[in-house]
Amino acid sequence: MQLQGTNSFKKVGIVFAALIVASAISLTGASAAGNIVPVMTSNTSPAGTASASSEWAFHEAYKAFDHDTSTYYSTSSGSTGYLQYRFGTSKRVTSYRLTTSSQPLANVPKTWTLQGSSNGGSWVVLSSQSNTYSPSSSYYFTLSSTGDYDSYRLVITANNGAYSTSVAELELYE
């Protein structure tokens, strides 16, 4: 194929740019594929319940389950706390992905456990993590222990020194 003139080059450039954007969208969708938490638009919609030990204004619990890494959940008081999602029916989560927010390193969780419960009162530790994690980064973990639970919570026991702790996304996979 022989291209003639500037308009032909512009058309090829536009098509090429569209292909790049389509590829990026496809990869983004693939990274969230398999996440069994629906795209939450509030703490109770469209299904299940997102909750937390505390919430900073405009950074509610559901923001960690809205499939959007530009938003985030944040504790309103303290460097520790929990972030929870209740399905309402039992699910067997085998892995999870934690995406840290764009907030400074001091706000990033440093140590936590992922726990499961069938009754909201007794919790089983499924994963324990402790490390220095970076802002705006995703970390994938496979559970060493699994079970059928209707509720899962991330219990943050330390951050990197800030007054509050933030999480961009918590994805759960069967």
TrEMBL record:
UniProt entry keywords in alphabetical sequence: Signal
Protein name as it appears in the record: F5/8 type C domain-containing protein
Top-level taxon in the UniProt lineage: Bacteria
F5/8 type C domain span: 50-170
The keyword Cell membrane is assigned to this record: no
Species for this entry: Paenibacillus donghaensis
One Pfam family, short name: F5_F8_type_C
Signal peptide limits: 1-32
Keyword Transferase among UniProt keywords: no
